[in-house]
């Protein structure tokens, strides 16, 4: 006897629900308000110093998880991504590192508040954290991150301390995944207010400018247009 084939919900209601999730409403950039606040301290360190710090953090806490948001607005009938610019040459998505035990959604809302609001205690009202649209991994404290786990990695979530306790001859470079970065699609409410530190700029950059422009925006941000290709955009007029 063969197994019974699964029955899929092909109803109009289900199709509407699926299609609704793939449509992103975009409000005009002019419908948002922008302000500034006191500058924040940014860590300036050499690459070697950063590697030492990351190794120390990994030994103490294990895998580092960061979350960032892709926030979209409409300008000239084209989707634009909100990016933070630092020192005229460094572009970042708003977000940051999760605290121990903190969920992706709660951590991202907290980091967005710290980056785009008066402070991290004042959450952005109406912000909806949508689906995760991409993940990147950093093995062996490398500069680059990869959109896949290297084949020689078997324990990406186990801390270095526990590995050393289990096996004093454990191969450090064969197992170590130091960081996981997750990108989430954020859905903005109408008339949102953004307050950015004075040493940063908040820019609206068109998708067509980001596309494969790794030299300017780096290997992750330049892939955002591809990650968003499955979505349809509904340009709303206010």
Automatic annotation (TrEMBL):
Top-rank lineage group of the source organism: Eukaryota
Compartments reported by the entry: Nucleus
Regions crossing the membrane: none
GO molecular function: mRNA binding
UniProtKB keywords: mRNA processing, Nucleus, RNA-binding
InterPro entries: Cleav_polyA_spec_factor_su5, NUDIX_hydrolase-like_dom_sf
Keyword Zinc carried by entry: no
GO cellular component: mRNA cleavage factor complex
GO biological process, any: mRNA 3'-end processing
Record has rRNA-binding as a keyword: no
Role noted for this protein: Component of the cleavage factor Im (CFIm) complex that plays a key role in pre-mRNA 3'-processing. Involved in association with CPSF6 or CPSF7 in pre-MRNA 3'-end poly(A) site cleavage and poly(A) addition. NUDT21/CPSF5 binds to cleavage and polyadenylation RNA substrates. The homodimer mediates simultaneous sequence-specific recognition of two 5'-UGUA-3' elements within the pre-mRNA. Binds to, but does not hydrolyze mono- and di-adenosine nucleotides. May have a role in mRNA export.
The protein's assembly and partners: Homodimer. Component of the cleavage factor Im (CFIm) complex.
Family named by the database record: Belongs to the Nudix hydrolase family. CPSF5 subfamily.
UniProt protein name: Pre-mRNA cleavage factor Im 25 kDa subunit
């Amino acid at each position: 006897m063969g197994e019974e084939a699964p029955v899929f919900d092909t109803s109009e209601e289900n199709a509407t629900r699926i299609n609704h999730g793939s449509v992103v409403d975009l409000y005009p950039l002019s419908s948002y308000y922008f302000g500034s606040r006191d500058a924040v301290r940014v860590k300036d360190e050499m690459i070697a110093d950063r590697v030492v710090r990351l190794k120390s953090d990994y030994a103490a806490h294990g895998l580092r998880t960061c979350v960032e948001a892709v926030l979209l607005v409409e300008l000239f009938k084209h989707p634009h991504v909100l990016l933070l610019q630092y020192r005229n040459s460094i572009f970042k998505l708003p977000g940051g590192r999760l605290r121990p035990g903190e969920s992706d959604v709660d951590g991202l809302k907290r980091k967005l508040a710290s980056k785009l609001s008066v402070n991290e205690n004042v959450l952005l009202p109406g912000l909806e954290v949508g689906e995760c649209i991409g993940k990147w991994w950093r093995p062996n404290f490398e500069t680059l991150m990869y959109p896949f786990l290297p084949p020689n990695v078997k324990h990406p979530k186990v801390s270095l301390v526990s590995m050393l306790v289990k096996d004093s001859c454990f191969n450090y470079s064969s197992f170590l995944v130091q960081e996981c970065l997750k990108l989430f699609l954020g859905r903005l409410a109408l008339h949102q207010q953004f307050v950015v530190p004075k040493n940063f700029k908040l820019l609206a950059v068109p998708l067509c400018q980001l596309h494969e422009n790794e030299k300017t925006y780096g290997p992750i941000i330049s892939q955002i247009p591809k990650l968003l290709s499955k979505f349809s955009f509904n340009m709303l007029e206010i």
